[in-house]
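WARN no homologs supplied; continuing
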Amino acid sequence: MVTHETTVIRIQKAPMYCEGCESITPHFSLIEAISALSLPEEEIRRLAEIGEIHNSAGTDGSLQLCGRSAASISHGYLGGHT
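OK structure emitted
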């Protein structure tokens, strides 16, 4: 039997253009990513640096992370990451 796990990340902000996805996607802050993905800040920053989580600068210069790419990698980390 094959099972699938789906991670849903709800973001209550206006979406932004993601160059990696080449489309408009929800984005969230580093603090929101730490909470949503249950990963340490250093790991999220590393994933953003290597392009696993697409990212861009917000209007205030803060790191904004693509919700679509974060959700696609999250299943590999949730429940099994130490």
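Residues 78-82 have pLDDT under 50 and may be disordered.
OK
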